[in-house]
Specification:
Elements (H helix, E strand, L loop, with lengths): L1 H15 L5 H31 L1 H27 L6
Helix pairs in contact: 1-2, 2-3
Keywords: Cell inner membrane, Cell membrane, Membrane, Transmembrane, Transmembrane helix, Transport
Membrane topology: Multi-pass membrane protein
Protein name: MFS transporter
Length: about 90
């Protein structure tokens, strides 16, 4: 999943951020979109495994994946609707 998402995210930032701010945009994506979640996820995952076991850890992956799928479906539907004429 990361192998497909990362190039798309870098391309998105490169297209939507002005050239003079591109380095800042890519740095923000890499630090907030990759670095911080990795740090938090590793610590949280270790805590879950230590106190609840691997089964709970993988169950939480399922819950977060389903939440992401629901958010995607809502936004995809909202963005695909055409504005209504007055």
């Amino acid at each position: 999943c990361y192998g497909l998402f990362h190039p798309a995210a870098v391309a998105f930032v490169s297209i939507h951020v002005p050239p003079q701010k591109r380095a800042v945009g890519l740095t923000m994506y890499l630090s907030l979109g990759v670095g911080l979640p990795t740090f938090i996820g590793s610590a949280l995952g270790g805590y879950i495994v230590e106190f609840f076991g691997y089964r709970t850890l993988f169950g939480s992956y399922t819950v977060f994946s389903l939440m992401g799928l629901i958010v995607y479906a809502v936004f995809a539907r909202a963005l695909s609707e055409k504005p209504k004429a007055c």
